[in-house]
């Protein structure tokens, strides 16, 4: 689980918690919704940032994999919100970064 500090344009800040699988789900939604910007027809046209795919690993490696993904996830979030508003402010992105009931009772570990 990743801890993300979200700062909205209003200046309000919130802390949310997201699993890597939720980032991956968002990525798939973005590529489906914006195929041109996702480079499906012409890879040179891609503006949606890349997110490393899912990795299969043993339970003992969870922390190592999570730590290795910190920088790519940070870069992905920053690149995503720098995209044109029709992408960066689309419903899927806004919903992803909104506070959810789970965020009010964060994971213990």
UniProtKB/TrEMBL annotation:
GO cellular component terms?
A: cytoplasm
List each coiled-coil range: none
Single GO BP term? superoxide anion generation
The record's listing under InterPro entries reads:
NADPH_Oxidase/PX-Domain (IPR051228), PX_dom (IPR001683), PX_dom_sf (IPR036871)
What are the boundaries of the signal sequence?
none
Give the stretches traversing the membrane. Answer: none
Pfam families in the cross-refs: PX
Instruction: Report what the protein is called.
Output: SPD2B protein
> What organism is listed for this UniProt entry?
Lanius ludovicianus
Q: Which gene encodes it?
A: Sh3pxd2b_0
């Amino acid at each position: 689980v990743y801890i993300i500090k979200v700062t909205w344009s209003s200046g309000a800040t919130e802390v949310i918690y997201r699993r890597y699988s939720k980032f991956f789900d968002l990525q798939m939604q973005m590529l489906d919704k914006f195929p041109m910007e996702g480079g499906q027809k012409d890879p040179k046209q891609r503006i949606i940032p890349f997110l490393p795919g899912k990795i299969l690993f043993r339970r003992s490696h969870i922390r190592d994999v999570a730590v290795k993904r910190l920088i790519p996830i940070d870069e992905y979030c920053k690149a995503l919100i720098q995209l044109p508003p029709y992408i960066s402010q689309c419903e899927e992105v806004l919903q992803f970064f909104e506070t959810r009931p789970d965020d009010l009772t964060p994971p213990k570990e």
